[in-house]
User: What shape does this take?
Amino acid sequence: MTERGRRPDQNQQRQQQEQERRQGESRAGDDEGLRARLDKLSNALDAQREAATALDAAKAQQDGASARATATAMGLAIRILSEFVAAVIVGTLIGWGIDRAAGTTPAFLIIFLLMGAVAGFWNVYRIAMKPPGAES
Amino acid sequence: MAEENSMDPIHQFVIKPYVRLHPFGIDASFTNASLFMVIVVLSAAALMLLGTQSRALVPSRLQSLAEMAYQFVASTVHMAGGHDGMRFFPFVFTLFLFVLFCNLIGLVPYTFSVTSQITVTAALALLVIGIVIVYGLLHNGTRFFKLFVPSGVPVALMPLLVPIEIISFLSRPVSLSVRLFANMLAGHITLKVMGGFVVSLLGAGFFSVLAPLPFAMTIVLTAFELLVAVLQAYVFAILTCVYLNDAVHPGH
Assistant: This one.
């Protein structure tokens, strides 16, 4: 019962909408055409920009790759060296401190010196095992 | 006396107090190191303030320099710490600019390089590690200690691995400070010694024909020190990011 009641209403509405759209199309025709042209233009611009950046990147890679690789490699070398040395020093200092406090003179110094060396190797291993592309 | 000073490669690192201040028995004198720290902070602030003043769409050289520094550090922080790490961006950026300007200004003859003092670099490194510990404990609570427990390791190995991880963690401020300090110290001493060779060869009669050799070496070393200055600032910043990332996301 309710369905029958609604149908004519809906049909009317649909017809109205259709009419409005037809009227609007002739008015909005310029607008849509403009939008299409703008879209096309911006697409072309994007494509051009992408091509330009790709070209730039390729050129920059050729120019700066060796210099940047050298700098990165040097930074890595300095890091590995200092991390290894620092771990050994810290281990030794901890062992020395425990020995001084406990009066067990060479025992903990030796243990922590070795542990410091292991920690140093562990640091270096962790740096070296990072995938080459990733920073840090 | 004057000649002796100019030949002494360590003399450039002597700290001279300009204004003697001893509040509460602490030596807080205004020294040449303090003076250059003030200069460094002022010039870094000037770069950012003057560089961002015009905000032109097509940047001037100064603005482009400021933007490059900003973008470089921002991408570094984002890469190491992700979105959560970006809250530390102001801190890392300040550290980076401070270290970079210290290193670069220290390269100018007759200046004092602040980063060649281990007290300065150690203070910076302790600041970083202090923030890592405090923020890690506040943000993650006891989960922060997962940092010392490597995942996927049998329990039998834990008594061995946990002390190693602790030593590895404690060695971070040491390596952070010693690396910067040692690089700057060694570089400046090398430059001074090479410059000293030029002077002593010039005064050595026939051998003065050899003087251009260490002079050329000095030029090469100066360029190399420029690279090291920027590189060390970069390494300091990126390691700060890595350590802060451990505080944000502990447990590898």
Notes: Chain B has one domain: 2-248. The mean pLDDT of chain B is 85. Strands of chain B lie at 17-19, 30-31.
